[in-house]
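Example record

One chain of 383 residues, shown exactly as stored in the release files.
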Amino acid sequence: MRGILTFATATAAAFAVACGGGSGGGSGAGNGTFAAGTVLGLGASQGDIALADMDQDGTADLLAVRGGIFDQLIVHDGQANGFGPESPYALDGHEPRALGTGDFDDDGYTDVLVWCEDGIVDHLEAATVNNVLGVFDRTDLTGAGTAGARGLRVARLNGDADEDVIMGLAGALTRFDGTTGSGFLTSVDLSPSGFLTGIATPDLDGDGQGDLVGITLLGSVLVAENAGLGGFLAGTTHTLPTPASSATAWGLLDGADGTDVVVGLQAVAGGGVRVAVLPNLANGTANVGAPDIVTVTLGEQATVVALEAPDLDEDGDADLVVATAANVYVLMNNGVGAFTLADTLTPGGAIDAVAIGDVNGDGVLDVAVRAGGSVTPYFGNEG
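Predicted structure tokens for this chain:
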């Protein structure tokens, strides 16, 4: 059955479902609550962030883009109480917007893609000498078009074992195919795609390749199956009760087989804070079913600006980290697609991005929140 899921308070209290649908100690299982660490100033108020272990020391390091007069990628080492000093990398006047990470040359080190406002994609291959943060060999990729803040994803798309990248904004959809040890091939234009933002690449049909999910100009969800060589079949559009934002994620959400899709919704009067879960039909195709609407019923009525679906408590299903411009809500999945509000994080300033990783190396997932020119790490408490 499909229905409305409602949260009554901002505490870790259970909620009624209309229709079914201490600091970390190293176990790996969090309980959905968090303690704030030391706030890190970035000197610029907006931009993407990511968490990845760049120096292979077992902790997630912070990657952040810094635009304006800086035009930099900055890297901060993950530490017990937050992040260490910055290691900046100049992007030569390219205004950075979006980040993607992956081991693109299969050397065991995490590399970085930075999609810039002028359409340049900076491919930053991590140097392997002494595991030094912020040392890269750089190659500019061209042909991507104007950057979108949440339009870049890394996935296996064209049938081989290499990681590829896809990016989309304002009618353009572009793919760069990865080649082992050789960077990326020339861009492939997948247009006409229509207006798509909030690109996501879950493997919905279980064939090992990313399928395409995106948000249309009217705020509907487009789902298209990978045709096998990085192209996509004609998509299916799913209309939502109110338009989607550009926030998308995926994971095992409803207790049934197959990867599900979750998208943030725009604000509506009396609507609280809402996401839509589109369940996988698990029929060997990239089809999803009608959306369940998950609502956080609080005083805030706001658009979802960022969204992640990690398994915070390591119970096999995806939980939700839902950000508005003011707050981050942590929603724990009970295993059948019903959620409990476990914590509310309020960093101060306008929230622009969130990222998930183990910053302090205790085995429990943490949350980094970029807001108002700073990043706050929130350390997961052990379950």
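Notes: The two ends are 30 Å apart (CA to CA).
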